[in-house]
Amino acid sequence: MGWRARHLTSRNGSADMNSATTPSLSPAGAHVTKSEAETELLATAFAHLLNPGTWVGLIGPLGSGKSVFARAVGRAWGVEAAMPSPTYTLMNCLVGRCPIYHMDLYRIESADELDFAGLTPYFSLSGICLVEWAEKAHSLWPATGWTVTFDQLDEYSRRIEIASFRNHS
Asked: Are strands 55-59 and 144-152 parallel, antiparallel or unpaired?
């Protein structure tokens, strides 16, 4: 029985937020979620690992759950406003317990284009930076952060790998 099955559902089968956020559990590692609600619970548990100044790269194909995950992290950090995907605006600045910078690099062709748009300073500001399609700007990643990699297993199920990283330059 995996982490999701043991800790994301209660005895009656309903979502249990308290189990998902138990401090002794670590959302780092590989998980399988079987619904959008389970992906949100995993993201909420992950959000408890973050501090202002944290960079998170969200990697995966279209429709794999990156925006769902980002919205749940934002809500866990107190964002009450809607969090639409910033596909066309490139970045949304949101207000929670700290600033949340939600970027979507889908339309970016290169790291140079992102730098030219003036978005790279947000990678290292004091808010939480959530970057969808982060692999498009790998050369601009900060020294430390997290990657969340999504694989779509079927219409509803996702394999989500959460890992911290430290670049040794």
From this structure: parallel
Cβ partners under 8 Å of residue 13, min gap 6: none
The per-residue pLDDT for range 9-38, each reduced to its tens digit, is 322 333 333 344 333 346 789 999 999 999
Chain-centroid distance, C-alpha 156: 18
Phi-psi region of 40 (alpha: psi -120 to 50; beta: other; left: phi over 0): alpha
Please tell me the pTM assigned to this model: 0.81
Torsion sign over Cα 166, 97, 47, 151? negative
Q: Where are the domains of the chain?
A: 3-166
Q: 3-166 domain in CATH 3.40.50.300? A: yes
Q: In sequence order, what are the beta bridge partners of 158?
A: 33, 152
